[in-house]
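Filed under: proteins

Residues; backbone shape codes:
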Amino acid sequence: MSSRKLRLGIVGVGNCASSLVQGLTYYHDARSNEPIPGLMTPALGGYEVGDIEVASAFDVAAAKVGRDVGEAIYCPPNNTYRFAEVGRTGVRVERGNTLDGLGKYLREEIEESDEPVCDVGDVLARTGTEIVVCYLPVGSQHAVEWYAERALEARCAFVNCMPVFIASRREWRARFEASNLPVIGDDIKSQVGATIVHRVLTNLFRERGVRLDRTYQLNFGGNTDFRNMLERERLVSKKISKTQAVMSQLDVPLDPDNVHVGPSDYVPWLTDRKFCHIRMEATTFGGLPLNAEIKLEVWDSPNSAGIVIDAVRCAKLALDRGVGGALVGPSSYFMKSPPQQFTDAEARERTLRFIAGNDEAAPRLVQ
């Protein structure tokens, strides 16, 4: 295999995976000297989008297991925007391990495959998978940890797009560092989504001397992610992740009663569209009030795909350079709950330094 190829394993062939795989086709011939809407970084460390290829994929749905990835990404309940025709990839979706990956609402919609669970570690090794991207449903604590174990066994980098804390937990970071394997996480921060907009405005208030007193962020949509999150027990880590991402921009965190950041409801006819409403109540010069309200509408899954394209290329650079453990700069730029929080401007600068090879030789664990 060409050393310039970057071989991905995808865990969970849902809407986010669909957008990612479609994007690999849509941007396959993109070149770094062209203005390209939708991509933050056409070429990253010498890797272009066309260098990324899917090597393996895992799911539990009967409608997807056994199909080519290029077919499975369009199978219900996937309902994201179809912006590229992928065609056959030659990669079969294998039967993964369910564990706690399906909550009660998803079980009403998804029929589990009756195929036996495959040897995931063997598939990763046999297919030459280098980087595992985790797209499991919110609340899949045991399943995410199980796949992180398989990535370590198969000597793969791990990009955790879910709000299960892997890169941000000291014991998991230490294990990836001991194995000299990179990990980026946790919980993908969309390109221009609810969290980054809320973070940037919160930081703007702080930098301009405006005291944020109360704020909320209410999100709703019609994809399986929102349906899954109707099961409030599965929302604990998600709400922590989103709240920390915003509150980390303040010198003095708000009282918990004065902040609400999290999913709100499921509206089926919205499909993969997500609506976000943000309100910020603040105090400015002379003790006078300042209130801001923002409404954001996006296609939820495509909004994260470009970030993953950059994240997996950063993971590949770390593999090339022999750097293991949590990649602090890229994690802080691409994820809501990284090992260490910075402002988005500093996170971007740290990521650019990492890409250029000017970052520290090895990541420092945050104590």
